[in-house]
Automatic annotation (TrEMBL):
It comes from the Bacteria. InterPro entries: Gfo-Idh-MocA_inositol_DH, Gfo/Idh/MocA-like_OxRdtase_N, GFO_IDH_MocA-like_dom, MI/DCI_dehydrogenase, NAD(P)-bd_dom_sf. The keyword Lipoprotein does not apply. It is an enzyme of class 1 (oxidoreductase). Residues 134-249 form the GFO/IDH/MocA-like oxidoreductase domain. Transmembrane segments: none annotated. The lineage of its organism: Bacteria, Bacillati, Actinomycetota, Actinomycetes, Kitasatosporales. This is Inositol 2-dehydrogenase.
Length: 337
């Protein structure tokens, strides 16, 4: 790699286009040299805004384009495995949007391919690990500031869900963030999942089980409850309260500025993740580019993506059966210890 990191972006929808903008504006030392999306009009439109990037409808052609040193995957989850395997085949470092894959079997195939190379090349886009509030909570927990953690009470609310969203995706696409955050914050594995749901909100699209309450049990004896509500109507809200043996700590109240005027007080609620986590996406990308330029791979690994997918799978079983479902995890290979 000479000087500037050349990136191929696979999937130029909402997130892919956001990352492309970010690489151009807020991340130094990198530029997008190729973009791929099966939607030919869309990919041409995104490429037209870039200086000299090639546009492809085939991800393999983008990864093989001249000047590509690394790949950023922002296609839908079910398309990730194929894109990851083709990047690994070219030994290219990858930042892959979450989920690594929606299913653990696919994630394990990716982990095995990376193991065969004998080095980590994949970082998963669990951007909450780069959010300043989550980082502070992790520091507090690691320092024993509230004693042994007993509970994480989490709220994950989206104003509305995209048309393609399914009841399973509330777990495999949304709660997967809490799964990773809980594993990272607590340094523990999730061992069992239960799901209970109220009568669906009248605001949810027909047939969508929204909201749901997902309970995670962990290897260190903590319990994590996640209210996931993707058509809450009022905005984007991600909160986490940790309760320990000697205190509690809460993040995500979103009270950056409270305005008092005209006999009332209040603030604004972010409407989506691109606002709430804007800084986290920036930091995630900057740190990924810096690590790749230095020949390293950091952050959430393919193993973390696999573990999250295994918990998602248990969650889907728990939702369908109504039963507490143990999580089955393969043995962690030495590469990820
Ligand atoms: N980290 C976050 O907070 C966050 C937020 C939103 C989305 N995401 C993740 O980003 C990914 C994309 O989500 P989105 O909201 O941008 O979806 P989107 O539907 O807006 O965009 C997906 C794009 O991928 C394209 N595509 C479909 N199949 C493809 C394939 N095989 N190869 C390449 N491109 C393909 C589609 O044409 C579309 O343009 C998903 O994995 C999603 O979970 C993460
Ligand atoms: O893909 C998105 C994204 O991961 C957001 O961060 C999350 O809040 C949404 O629920 C999910 O659908």
């Amino acid at each position: 790699m000479a000087g500037t990191l050349g990136i191929a972006v696979i999937g130029t929808g909402r997130m892919g286009a956001d990352h492309v903008r970010r690489i151009g504006r807020t991340v130094g030392g990198a530029r997008v040299v190729a973009v791929a999306d099966p939607d030919g009009d869309r990919v041409k439109e995104v490429a037209a805004g870039l200086d000299g990037a090639s546009a492809h409808t085939d991800p393999a052609a983008a990864a093989a384009a001249p000047g590509v040193d690394a790949v950023l995957i922002a296609s839908p989850g079910p398309a990730h495995e194929e894109a990851l395997l083709l990047a690994l085949a070219r030994e290219l470092p990858v930042l892959c949007e979450k989920p690594l894959t929606p299913d653990p079997a696919g994630a394990l195939r990716v982990v095995e391919a990376e193991q065969r190379l004998g080095r980590r090349l994949i970082q998963v886009g669990f951007m909450r690990r780069y959010d300043a509030e989550y980082e502070r909570l992790k520091e507090l927990l690691d320092a024993g500031g509230i004693g042994r953690p007993l509970f994480l009470h989490c709220r994950h609310r989206n104003a509305s869900s995209p048309s393609f969203f399914t009841s399973d995706m509330l777990i495999s696409d949304s709660v997967v963030h809490e799964v990773d955050a809980a594993r990272w914050l607590l340094g523990q594995e999730v061992t069992a999942v239960s799901v209970v749901s109220p009568r669906p909100s009248g605001a949810a699209p027909e047939g969508l089980q929204d909201p749901q309450l997902v309970l995670l049990e962990t290897s260190g004896g903590a319990v994590v409850d996640v209210e996931v509500f993707v058509n809450c109507g009022f905005g984007y809200e991600v909160r986490c309260e940790a309760v320990g043996e000697s205190g509690s700590a809460r993040i995500g109240d979103g009270h950056a500025m409270v305005v008092q005027a005209g006999g009332r007080w209040g603030g604004e609620i972010a409407q989506d993740f691109t606002v709430r986590f804007a800084d986290a996406y920036d930091r995630q990308l900057r740190r990924w580019v810096a690590a790749v330029a230095a020949g390293r791979t950091e952050g959430p690994s393919a193993w973390d993506g696999y573990a999250a997918a295994a918990v998602s799978e248990a969650g889907l079983t728990a939702r369908r059966t109504g039963l507490r479902t143990p999580v089955e995890l393969a043995e962690r290979p030495a590469l990820y210890r």
